[in-house]
Write a structure and sequence with these properties.
The chain is of the alpha/beta class and 384 residues long. It contains 13 helices and 16 strands. Helix 2 crosses helix 3, helix 6 crosses helix 13 and helix 10 crosses helix 11.
Length: 384
């Protein structure tokens, strides 16, 4: 026997509506009360009460639009106030760390970055993060309310435990707990490619796509997936190691122990070989070589392996869009177009959906920093 179903309390409804309003302003920017009411499906009196409460708390402000049309009283714009909620976004890469203080609405208020060189000890990285965060907080006169961290490795989302980050030579690093202990803030840690996908979905090339895949090449190759508008996170948060699907069993040995992983054919060392550069050539040299490339056909074999892996991914996941990030954003447009055409030609699913698009990220190197910020904002918006 089941008991009576209890209704939703008015305060829960108000909180839900408040969060929805904040999320709309945070992601899409300023809007009028009338537009907010229409987009959120709320009546004008509800919107007025929510905006008035947020304005009183200093979370939003209202301004007369710079461009006015028509007669009568202008409709005021509701604007999120960046300093009302600030998070720390951290992007840990193989060769350097980037950090930003990001305000409500997505504005990056301040930045810092430093090279790791050969020093990748987790303790030293954490110490540098803490020191930099304190200096930036003082310089910006900002108080952070949360932290988001991007890491190129296998991360347990529940507590930010880095199971393995091979290119950093990290194993079983309690990154989330250690950062929380010293920063005294809630810390969210995610796989870098997963956060790249989140960034593209919220603020990049995939804003209008509910099903997309993000593929990034730093030293290794990773992938993030958005399905039906939600991140695919897998059991325990372990998902997205697309670079380790085997595409060439007779290929090179991968650090994971397999032969011919996709990463060995389309990662940064493979691109270096295709360009005639040493496997460990500096990133700047690789980008410069790509920009100076006179004969794109020099990358035909590399592009073939890239298209092969993407066709497999599209057949399995069926995205409407594939976004190439990090080093792939420097590929010549003709190469990206050739890869896109090859995927559409070779993938049964791509043909069925009318052609999966392959594009480069407009966010570039900032994608994972933006994703880390959005990860940190997820619980903040619910409690602001």
């Amino acid at each position: 026997m089941t008991g009576p179903t209890s209704g939703t309390r008015p305060d829960e409804i108000r909180r839900h509506n408040r969060t929805a309003l904040l999320r709309r302003l945070h992601i899409d920017g300023p809007s009028t009360r009338a537009s907010l009411a229409a987009e959120l499906g709320l009546n004008r009196s509800t919107i007025k009460a929510l905006v008035d409460g947020l304005a009183e708390a200093g979370v939003v402000a209202e301004r007369v639009p710079a461009l006015r049309s028509g007669a009568g009283r202008p409709s005021l714009l509701v604007l999120p106030q960046p300093q009302a909620a600030v998070v720390i976004a951290i992007d840990v890469r193989v060769e350097h760390v980037a950090m930003g203080f990001v305000g409500l609405g997505g504005e990056i208020l301040g930045r810092d970055s430093w090279n790791l060189h050969r020093t990748r000890d987790p303790g030293e990285v954490i110490t540098h993060i803490v020191d930099s965060a304190r200096l930036m907080a003082d310089d910006l006169d900002a108080t952070a309310v949360g932290v988001g961290v991007s890491v190129p490795g296998v991360v347990r989302r529940a507590d930010g435990h880095v199971h393995e980050a091979p290119n950093l030579h990290w194993t079983d690093v309690a990154l989330g707990k250690r950062l929380e202990a010293v920063l005294k803030l809630p810390v969210q840690v995610g796989n870098d490619a997963e956060l790249g996908a989140l960034a593209e979905h919220v603020r990049g090339a995939a804003q209008q796509s509910s099903d997309m895949v993000y593929i990034s090449a730093d030293v290794g190759v990773g992938g993030g997936v958005i399905l039906s508008g939600q991140p695919l996170r897998g059991s325990g948060g372990y998902v997205g190691e697309l670079g380790h699907m085997v595409v060439n069993p007779r290929g090179r040995r991968c650090y994971c122990g397999c032969d011919g992983c996709w990463e060995t054919e389309v990662g940064e060392p493979a691109l270096c070989r295709a360009l005639g550069l040493p496997d460990d050539a500096p990133r700047g040299a690789v980008v410069a070589a790509l920009r100076a490339l006179d004969a794109p056909e020099q990358l035909d074999e590399f592009a073939g392996w890239l298209a092969l892996g993407l066709a497999n991914i599209v057949n399995v996941l069926g995205p409407e869009l594939v976004v190439l990030g990090d080093l792939y954003t420097a590929l010549p447009p003709s190469v990206v177009d050739a890869v896109s055409s090859a995927v559409q030609r070779r993938s049964l699913v791509s043909r069925a959906v009318g052609g999966t698009q392959v594009v480069t990220s407009p966010l570039g190197r900032d994608a994972k920093l933006v994703g880390a910020a959005e990860l940190a904002f997820e619980p903040v918006l619910d409690n602001l």
